[in-house]
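Here is one chain, start to finish.
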Amino acid sequence: MLEKPRSSVAARTFGTLSMAFVVVSIANMALISVELSWLAPPLLDALEYVCIVWFTAEFALRLLCTRDRCRFLRSVANIIDLLAILPFYITLLVESMCGGESSQELENVGRIVQVLRLLRALRMLKLGRHSTGLRSLGMTIAQCYEEVGLLLLFLSVGISIFSTVEYFVEQGVPGTTFTSVPCAWWWATTSMTTVGYGDIRPDTTTGKVVAFMCILSGILVLALPIAIINDRFSACYFTLKIKEAALRQREALKKLTKNTSTDSNINVNLRDIYARSIMDMLRLRSRERASTRSSGGDDFWF
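Its structure:
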C-alpha cells in the first residue's frame, strides 16, 4: 500500500492523500511569506504542523514496513523524505535551546532557522515518488553527467572568451556598464544562455558584433549536448512506463493464479486487466523503438 500506489484502492487513496499533503504544504510555505489580512498566521502554522505530522507518520510507516533498513535509508527518495521533515524538528530544537540568549545570538539563530526553513522546498521532490516524469528526469541527470559536464565546459570556455573580449572593447566608452571582467562574465552568461536581461549591454558597433557572435555561439553550444540528453530522457521515460506496465501485468497474473475458478465474473475481469497490461507494454515498446529510430540513437537501454 505504501510503495505501489496502483496496487489497490487503499494504496491509490494513500498515494492521493500523500500528493495532496505535499501540494498543501508547498502552498502553505508560499502563503506564510505573504502578509494576508484574511488569513491568520496561527492557521498557517497549524496547517504546517498537520503536514509535518503526516510526513513523519508516512516516513515512520515506510521505515517500519521495510525489511532492509540500511538499504531503505540509502535510497534517494527516502533521503529526500527525511530532509523534508528534519528542518522542522531542528528548528524547534534550536529555538527551544536558545530561548534566553542575547540579541546577537538570537540574530545568528534566526539566520540558521531561515536557512533550515529554505529546505522545506525539498518537499516538492516528494512528488517524484508518484510522477514518472520526475523520476525520468532524475535518471537522465544521473546517466548524463558526462554530457552535462560537457555542456558546462562549453559554456565556461565561451563565457571566458567573450567576456574578456567584450570588456576590452567596451572599457574605453564613457558611462559603460562593463566596469570589470566579472561584470562581463554576467553579461556573457545571460547572452550565451539566451536570457538577455539587458542590464549590461554593449554600446559600440564592435561590441555589438561580439555580442552577436556570443549569442550565436551560445545557441550552438546549448544545442549540441541537449540533443543527446533529450534522447536519453525519452528512453528513460519509456523504460519507466514499460516497467510500470510490467508490474501491472505481474500483479494481474498473481491475482489470476490465486483466484479460484468458481467466480467466473472475477476471472473475466482479471483476464481483461492482464490483457490490457500486455497491450500497454507492447504499445510502449513500439513507441520507444520509434523514438529511438527517429533520433538516430542506438538501442542502448535494452
